[in-house]
Amino acid sequence: MVKERARILVVGGGYVGMYTALRLQRRLKRELRQGEVDITVVAPDPYMTYQPFLPEAAAGSISPRHVVVPLRRVLDRCHVVIGEVTSVEHAKRTAEVATLATAEERKGATFLEYDELVLAPGSIARTLPIPGLAEHGIGFKTVEEAIGLRNHVIEQMDIASSTRDPAIRDAALTFVFVGGGYAGVEALGELEDMARYASRYYHNVQPEDMKWILVEATDRILPEVGPELGRYTVTELRRRNIQVLLNTRLESCVDRVAALSDGQRFPTRTLVWTAGVKPHPLVAATDLPRTPHGRLKCTAELTIDGVDHAWAAGDAAAVPDVTAAEPGTETAPNAQHAVRQARVLGDNIVHALRDEPLDTYAHKYVGSVASLGFHKGVAQVYGRRLKGYPAWFMHRVYHLSRVPTFNRKARVLAEWTLSGLFKREIVSLGSLEHPRAEFELAAGGKPPHSPSDDSNGSS
């Protein structure tokens, strides 16, 4: 029995938000049925994105709709509100919410009252004040960005195939990725593999005509898999004629020219920025305690330190790592911790409602897996290092086991099976991003939007 009727507000529909709400609706079935508990989930999108599958979605191995999980279907006992929480005043137990209808109603933001708060807004791309980055950079954090990047790469090959200007051709076939973490390395590996395959259908574009460049500010890539596998990854990428530039920074991309700290300059129409993340801006718009790095200050029980009835986990939360040898260590902001933290967080809210002792989050890092393209990968799991096909296979098995719902597992497995039996799709559907262009031309004479004219180059 819960102590009294409890209104639980979950902010965010990512790993922590969705899995916490899912845990709560499973543990509190009777209370939800009897009206003793109410769970509201506020998320900017009506789905949760399984981000480890974004590189494969960009490469065309998985359909975009299969890397997302519909929140309304999964959280059928919760109230799902599509909108943005813009501020939280926990002292008054209120959250300001801007929904899709807010602008239409012209009544300003609405306010939600709650008894228990789960703050899991996640993170956004960490950008730097680099000239030209905002105008020409492409992110790789959402399914829309992944599919847009796929369309863009294929369109650049179309441009290179049809132009007679060597400068335009060279810029179209130069692809620069900034950031040597998971997102950057996996996106580059999968897209290079896809473009190499697609080039066989172009009479005048060869794999060696394309320049793929990875820029990393530190002296190593993929630090999560360890130094040995990081060095192996560099060697493997260079064997594929991918330039890996370590201890190098992007200093400018004005006029679509990537100027690097080592003096090199690359005219390019494709600059992908994957150089880290930072806590969501909502964290700063609350009256809750934060660390010097801007993350929510949490306890090992996933409560917000020094505050009652407030909980947090995931990228925006600084959670102590009780398994670490060095005091003060925090858990890494990754999916492995987020999913497991959500389970403990959901259980602890139930414990708090029932006046039971709280659990401590303690999880030793199992390892890391990364795909470098079709049949290529690296993995370090339980201290064992794998390379090539075994690592790629483990990458697929691990993430297939982790993607939510049996429905999604079955669909992803079916697509992988079909991709092994048939050829890849190499069609660009960039016009999907501007579906009214053709009708606008017919109705008013306005020329259809040309992806190649996009100021940010992201098609």
TrEMBL record:
The keyword Oxidoreductase is annotated on this UniProt entry: yes
FAD/NAD(P)-binding domain ranges (all copies): 7-341
Entry keyword Metal-binding: no
EC annotation from Swiss-Prot or TrEMBL: 1.6.5.-
Alphabetical keyword list: FAD, Flavoprotein, NAD, Oxidoreductase
GO MF terms held by the record: oxidoreductase activity
UniProt superkingdom: Bacteria
InterPro entries assigned: FAD/NAD-bd_sf, FAD/NAD-binding_dom, NDH-2
Family to which this protein belongs: Belongs to the NADH dehydrogenase family.
UniProt-listed PANTHER family: NADH DEHYDROGENASE, NADH DEHYDROGENASE-LIKE PROTEIN RV1812C
Protein name: NAD(P)/FAD-dependent oxidoreductase
Organism the protein comes from: Streptomyces hyaluromycini
